[in-house]
Amino acid sequence: MLFRSCLLVVGLSFFPVRVLAFSDTQNYWGKDCIQELGERRLLSGYPDGSFRPNAIVTRAEAAVLMLNAFPNASVKRNAVIFKDVSLNYWGYKAINSAYQKGFFSGYPGNIFQPNQAIPRAQIIGVVAGGKNYASVSNPAQILQRYFEDANLIPNYAQSSIAAGTINSIVVNYPDVKKLKPQATATRGEVAALMCRALNIYAVPPQYIAGKAIKFIQFPSLIVEVLSPSTEAYDRGGKFQLYRRIESLQEYVLISADKIGLDCFRLNEKGLWELHPFVEGDEVHLVSVDFTFPLSLVYEDVF
Fold it and tell me: What is the mean pLDDT of the chain?
């Protein structure tokens, strides 16, 4: 495949505010993701400045995270009274809202178990459900293809995890082939899952399960299709993240409203240089040694 070292992505737009790094994530595999979520105020740490990435996540905490991640989700059902969630429980409102929006269900007997440590299979299913992915017709086959421990995935979560997998939101550390569905989810793992679901490209790609992983582990070229809502972030914060990828040699931004392409190329001095291309130009991508007329990109578009 010609573009085996090329990653083509279209992202969501966020405008980050820099916050101090957490004191205990500098050597953590998902530190960049945690930092980005912190800057977007989608998660927070502890008063001592730590994040505690290996700490567990409860169902109540996961309900809060889902509301933060998907604030515009619509209400799908009426509220219920959970017998084990009192009015003065800190997560009462979040739990009821997460239930009404369909993120969570309770257990038989109107029990929610807010303090239960949430299993990985459950939180992956919840996040995939929040993304409203199309259902898959052969979830068991998909799961067997990607995970060595697929037989441990509970029936209730198979369809949603399969959909999440083919949409590349599932993150498995340290072995991408082991889902560990019955293990308790940690704060760091849930953060990585949220980054993937929100198109925040800060998770080390070697830990992302799914069909595209072999093409994006060590990209030398990344191509972004711009839109008015994402352009500022694509040129700023996202490019700053991508520059951390040691293998990256070129970053290409394609305009969606006019014929134009900007190629940022890493030179011998380790500096990024801008090479703009306009209508009528031929584009040469050094990273993949490929030359093409810019008009080819816009064929049947304009």
Answer: 89
